[in-house]
Amino acid sequence: MSAPVIPIARVGDLSPREFRSRLAGAGVEVRIGPFDVRVRARARGLAMPLHALWRDYPLLSGARVLHAHVEVRDVWRLWPWPRRKVRFIVDGRAPHEDMPAGQALPVLEWGINLVIALRYHCFLMLHAAVLERGGRALLLPAWPGHGKTTLCAALAHRGWRLFSDEFGLLRPGTRELVPLPRPMPLKNASIDVIRRFAPEAFLGPVIPKTRKGTIAHVRAPADSAVRARETATAAWLVFPRWEEGAPLTLEEIPKSEGYMQLATNAFNYEMLGEAGFATARDLVAGTRCFRLVYSDLETAVARLTELADGHDG
Amino acid sequence: MTAERDLLITALVDPRNLVSWSAPDLDLVLRLLRRARLLGRVAAELDAAGLLGALPLAARDALASALIAAQARARVARWELDRIAYALRDLTDLQVVAMKGCAYLLADLPHARGRMFADVDLLVPESRLREVEARLREHGWQSSELSAYDERYYREWTHELPPLVHTEREVEVDLHHNVLMRTARLHPDPRLLLAAARPVRPLPGFRSFGFLTMAPIDMTLHAMAHLFYGGEMDDALREVADIDALLRHFGATEPGYWEEFWPRALELDLARPAYYGLRYAQRLLATPIPAPVLAASQAGAPAPLMTAAMDRLAPHTLFPAHPDQSARRARFARTLLYVRSHWVKMPPVMLIRHLAYKFYVRHLRTQEH
Fold first, then answer.
1. Does the pLDDT value for residue A241 go beyond 90?
2. How confident is the model over A260-301, as pLDDT tens digits?
3. Which of A40, B151, B179, B324 could serve as a FRET partner for B96 with CA atoms 20 to 30 Å apart?
């Protein structure tokens, strides 16, 4: 006798109309990786794209303690001239100034990142994209502008499971990376690069003039959202750099160098003190570290996949 | 008393209560505690009682995270104190008294565990202020560029120098020469505080850096004066919790504490804030206070109408507002108490000038850009 399988309700099971009205009312409670979040929203042009981008997130039901209560809403500013703005609110307060109207989607996504990064020090939060293949995790730490999110979105559409394009989460004392699958914000030229590279990728609306330029979000592939509770051990630490016209090179670097770059670039390494040091040290000890320089996405993805599949000689 | 205030009080008086709460109550109280900057303290107590594991995962994550953040701040503060002690190392005859959060930390008081604090506050004799400031500046501390008005405000009117921050770090160091503004209606004599200050007993594994802390009663009175006679009272439940913890801890461990409490409040000209401090600690957090001390403290009471007004207003401003509900009444109470906090800080003419200047800076000057 097998136990009956209770299907998990997901955002996509709600009609767009129902989703919108719940957002505007008591809120929608969703599981985003390890975080249970209640979202309320009254902002023009947000509900439909969010419904599509969050399609595969599990809906939570029943009373529970939540990791965050966030809200985004349109507000009117009258002074010095009347105009609409978007306000992000956490627990009844706005942590930053109002943003231009029409940017509710990135404001919500960045707002959730902000709340996680400022609050949840029960995780070591590395600043890295993370993907999994064959049960092992690849970390792509990088400074902004070096193509981390583009490469991450590309891999996520070529047989790698997306963990996050931004956060490498670990519980201190473990070597298990925890998935936090989110829509990936592509910037400027990267939007068309990914459209050509993965025509099957679902992209949200193109939003111009944000504080990071023109952006469009790629939906996390369904598999990554559905398997968000399956962790993986880090195996590769690759520092990518996109350079126009550069030939592909993947060069192994000393672990000490990988460690320093990873630790100094983390969100809360210093805050965790000794536990942060020990966790990052053990993580790097179990990986091979590389520097990747590339100009062509296709060959870079193929090379990393070869590495993961053990054909790297 | 509203339902969310009851939840907060129950959580603060005995955090072990949390393990038996329903999810919605627990969720709400964690949000309120975070806003009141008391999450770390409750976390420290639950952790010490071995009860973090008995809570739902999301509650455990929030509490453990707040404890980690508070421990990190304490580490940063200890390092700042270490660097200050190094910078002042040849001023061997100088008394430097750590105040508030740093004092609780150095004295290893129970409520220092998990307590979140921002600044390093130090008291030095006024005659040595210039010398100490110069020494810190030589070693890399700087104050941010202030307007001529702000510079004068600090130097001539307040009880502290403009905040100093070391170029390589982010901690604000406030050098005080008294516990209330020069212009305030009450005039505690800082020489009495310095004369009674005590050396910090070194803890195993930590240096005490030669700092002093105020004597137990003075430390308690300073917390009361800070809350009721100088600081802004918004979301200051944490300061009531500090006062409660100091009264409970020293009341139980320090010989002569209660007997000397009220005479010392009179001697330091802090009767009014001491009256409020005792009153609201007892009313809000059920602090046990001996009847003779309460009776004596009536001498510090304001006119009955004023006490009645404070009883109505204080909870609105001390307690954090419900995060999902608008709080118009609380905003009104907060405005009144904001005005009061200035009223007691400076004479009326000065106050009008000061508030007019602040209004100009906040609402008019920024529009020029």
1. yes
2. 999 988 999 999 999 999 999 999 999 999 999 999 999 999
3. B151
Cβ–Cβ < 8 Å for A188, A236: no
**Interface residues on B facing A, Cβ-Cβ cutoff 8 A:** 22-24, 26-27, 30-31, 34-35, 55-56, 58-62, 64-65, 68-69, 71-72, 75, 321-325, 367
Chain B residues closer than 8 Å to A80 by CB: 367
User: If we measure between CA atoms, which residue out of A136, A60, A114 comes closest to residue A267?
Assistant: A114
Residue B323: list chain A partners with CB under 8 A: 69, 91-93
Mean pLDDT of A47-63: 95
**Chain B: residue nearest A34 by CA?**
B58
Structure tokens at A15: 């009609």
- Round to whole Å and give the CA distance between B119 and B117: 6
In chain A, the domains with their CATH numbers are 11-119 (no CATH), 124-308 (3.40.50)
The token pair that represents B233 in the structure block: 């009272």
Which of B31, B34, B35 to mutate to test binding with chain A, by most A CBs within 10 Å of its CB?
B31
Average pLDDT score over residue span A96-119: 95
- In the sheet that holds A213-218, the strands lie side by side as A184-187, A213-218, A207-210
Collapse the DSSP code of B95 into the 3-class scheme (helix H, G, I; strand E, B; otherwise coil) and give the result: coil
Q: Concatenate the DSSP letters of all residues of A56-89 into one string.
A: TSBBP-SS---SEEEEEEEEEE-SSS-EEEEEEE
Look up the domain containing B251 and give its range: 3-368
Q: With CA atoms as reference, report the closest residue to A95 among A70, A74, A76.
A: A70
Kindly identify which residue of chain A lies nearest to residue B72, measuring between CA atoms: A271
**Nearest chain A alpha carbon to B321:** A92
Segment A196-227, tens digit of pLDDT: 999 999 999 999 999 889 999 999 999 999 99
What's the pLDDT band for B367 if we cut at 50, 70, 90?
very low
Q: Is B368's pLDDT higher than 50? A: no
Residues of A in contact with B34 (CB under 8 A): 91
Q: What's the whole-number average pLDDT of chain B? A: 88
B369 — pLDDT class (breaks 50, 70, 90):
very low
Please count the structural domains in chain B: 1
Contact B321 A270 (CB under 8 A): no
Round to whole Å and give the CA distance between B284 and B11.
12
